[in-house]
Amino acid sequence: MKRIAVFTSGGDAPGMNACIRAVVRGAVYHGIEVFGIRKGYNGMIAGDIFQMSSHSVSNIVQRGGTILKSARSKEFMTAEGRQKAYDQLQAHGIEGLVAIGGNGTFTGAMIFNNEYGVPTVGAPGTIDNDLYGTDYTIGFDTAVNTALDAVDRIRDTASSHDRIFFIEVMGRDSGYIAIQSGIAGGAELVMVPEVLTPLSEVVETLKQGWSRSKSSSIIVVAEGEEEGNATEIAERIKAQVDGDVDIRVTTLGHTQRGGAPTAYDRILASRLGLGALEGLIAGQKNVMAGIINNELVYTPFEDTIRLPKPINEDLLRMVKILSI
Ligand code: F6P
């Protein structure tokens, strides 16, 4: 393999730049020409492809976002879009790809590989940590720490005013950010999409807290929670508890996607970027590089997309025990 390209796609995640850096520097080290594709599959279709060097990735290991920019491409979901993308790769002599992204990115890569045989190896970049085939995804640790910082701050004001706060964190279909920021922030309850928490249980938890003279409570809600978003849940809870309870809602939103990556994410991203590149060189295709029990592993895209990554329900049990 003489020439490869790297791109980021889907929602950005802190640490993507460290991953790009590892792919580019790894390619230079192995004597392979490396190109960057801007804006994910949209840039592939448009031919927004440029040669990179070791210097192109200087001073980015510490930066959030992605220097290659990212997008969720509707056009790549069409056969015409993928044909244009293939034509552009051919025109630039690209023989293999490293795709940094999540589920949508790898679904696209798998279809593309099946149609055109362009070998692609993925590196898992998403704050949601919802990919089977790796213990952690790039950006998750930073997002948890960002959410935790907010939980800590909200706890101060919640305590000063004797308030109940519902804090909504990201995680489209996944409760990983909610569980980890909730445990670390000492939340009274964590609500996740994977496990139904009846509203009666929320009311019960609050009442138990009051009976033990707790004057403020924090409930962390994952955005994909089945009972609704944090605002809806808060309104329904308010209607169910008697008396003068002061409830507030904070939605953390995209603050969780930005910021400098933690040391953990920078190291993880570097390992996964180099792992993806070296897998590609060694002939891997249609797989995602991951780290399980501190070992580099490759998992077929099909499995990373199809297989669930269950949360550890024992952690939810622990939240309940530790919040008494
Ligand atoms: O997949 C990462 C994520 O941040 C999810 O947690 C969230 O649901 C989604 O992306 C938001 O996407 P967008 O930035 O397109 O609004």
From TrEMBL:
Pathway: Carbohydrate degradation; glycolysis; D-glyceraldehyde 3-phosphate and glycerone phosphate from D-glucose: step 3/4. GO terms for biological process: canonical glycolysis; fructose 1,6-bisphosphate metabolic process; fructose 6-phosphate metabolic process. The active site is at D128. It catalyses: beta-D-fructose 6-phosphate + ATP = beta-D-fructose 1,6-bisphosphate + ADP + H(+). Its EC number is 2.7.1.11. Keywords: Allosteric enzyme, ATP-binding, Cytoplasm, Glycolysis, Kinase, Magnesium, Metal-binding, Nucleotide-binding, Transferase. Its main location: cytoplasm. Substrate binds at T126, I127, D128, R163, M170, G171, R172, E223, R248, H254, T255, Q256, R257. Its cofactor is Mg(2+). GO terms for molecular function: 6-phosphofructokinase activity; AMP binding; ATP binding; fructose-6-phosphate binding; identical protein binding; metal ion binding; monosaccharide binding. Residues 3-278 form the Phosphofructokinase domain. Gene3D superfamilies: 3.40.50.450, Phosphofructokinase domain. Mg(2+) binds at N103. Homotetramer. HAMAP family: Phosphofructokinase_I_B1. Belongs to the phosphofructokinase type A (PFKA) family. ATP-dependent PFK group I subfamily. Prokaryotic clade 'B1' sub-subfamily. This is ATP-dependent 6-phosphofructokinase.
